[in-house]
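User: Quick sanity check before I run a bigger batch. Here is a single chain. Can you write out its predicted 3D structure?
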Amino acid sequence: MTDVQTATPAAPEVVGPQKAKPIAWPLGLAGAVLVIAGAFLSWSYDGSILNDLSINFYPGGLQILAIIVAVLALVLLLAEKGPLARLGAWLDVTAGLRSLGTGLSLFMILVLAAISVESDGLINVNPGGYVALVGALLIAVSGWLLPLRQLRDLSKAKAPAWAEILAIALLMAALLFVAAYALGLDDAWLFILCLVFIATITFGLFRTGAMSWVGHVGQRHKKVLTLASFAVAFLFPFTQNGSDANMSIATSVLVFAATAMGLNIVVGLAGLLDLGYIAFLGSGAYVAATLSQSAFATIGWKPPFLVVVLVGACVAALLGLVIGSPTLRVSGDYLAIVTLGFGEIFRFAMFNLDGNNGPNLTNGPNGVPGIPDLELFGFDFGATHAPLGIELGRFSNYYFLLLVLTGGVILVFSRLNNSRIGRGWVAIREDEKAAEAMGVNVFGLKLLAFAVGAFLAGLAGTIKAHQDGAVSPDQYIFLESAFLLAAIVLGGMGTIAGVLLGATILKLLPEKLRFFSEYRLLLFGITLVLMMRFRPEGLVASKRRQLEFHEEDEQLAESVENQLVEEAK
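Assistant: Done. Predicted structure follows.
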């Protein structure tokens, strides 16, 4: 293996006939300097908008973000020609510059648009904003004038173990800081601009190949990466200054993610399209509500919460078996229609179990309100606690409990995915007839997928009932099932990180972009269409599915080539 500290690789090969323009490098250098200089000048005449960008030589939040992108572009330029050329031998500098320049240009255009909208016209934009915009455009032009390089195999670039672990720690710390900063933004324009900044940095690092190296480092230090990820998640509430609003969003994300992880077994591994999965979450929530200490609870038995969790999960699993047994003989669109019907049947059943149309179990459309907060082992989840002098409210308490639940769900998913059962599910997903011919118990494994997925959703539902303080049939509509499925498709079917990312995006963005709520479904549909067109494997592709897409592309290219040869003959 090549040690990145001792071996200097040859310069990477240029892809295609393009040659570097002599003006490209100084143009990019001038652009980076202009962005940094412009960031130290005033951008807005009005100091009351965008967290005050009106002070010279005292950069505000958005100006600091622009400086970060410019400094990263400067590093890439010095890696192309300068003292960091050794680093440039491993990275695709040109692709990174193109991404950073384009993203920074979009960032500056949106900043100027925000100033114009918030303060009635471009006349309120100060010269610093225009200087930074010109600099961003110069960086983008510089990137497009430089030739693309052949990206090297970064799996061979090994640093000392301590350096790789330090890189993981720094990456996780940056992730924690960015998450805390983004959630702390109440202004919609600031949040959108922060998302553009995150996308620019992320895409730029991916294009250079740096994130590929991080992926190889993560593979070599899986335990360290896992522990670092949970440490960041654990420390997150301590960065929110007791904000119940942000922690409420975080707990909703965890409930959504844990539920989507269960659906990922059904859809991502077994390949079964379930459009009524929200019913399993609802069944767990209703079990917890009816067995709670609420004055509106309809069952007199009040067991400890740990027993309630098991009962709710088992009831959900039983429903999975009940719906699965007669319907798993069908597949594809027919299975989707049947599961959609099951989801609606569950919702209407909760409406009708009100004592008039059936036994009084759910109080009908009124649901079960007034569910008290949990109290486990003397710990009151509804009270405010102050460890190390930092206040943590009730949503922070539920966040920690849901974090433990999510960790358990991830552990179950990963173990099943790597087991003989998981390989059986994948075989069924790829070719059910071939799997059956090879001796795979197709019906049994399908039924198991439904039961396990429902069990995990039921677990999440029991905690969700106490966190929300009430349950009602209106919480479990078809649209919620559609969003769960979209989180898996968006993030990447069959993956853990992809589902967590998809769940975060689909829960966080609607909460922070409430001014866009009327067009939420439009944006949602456009996003899915773009994903299906440009990245059908999802944001975080499964290695198995990525291989499948590459094989399909190769087969398509081969068939087109054969057709052209035949036509030529």
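The radius of gyration is 27 Å.

User: Great, the batch can go ahead then.
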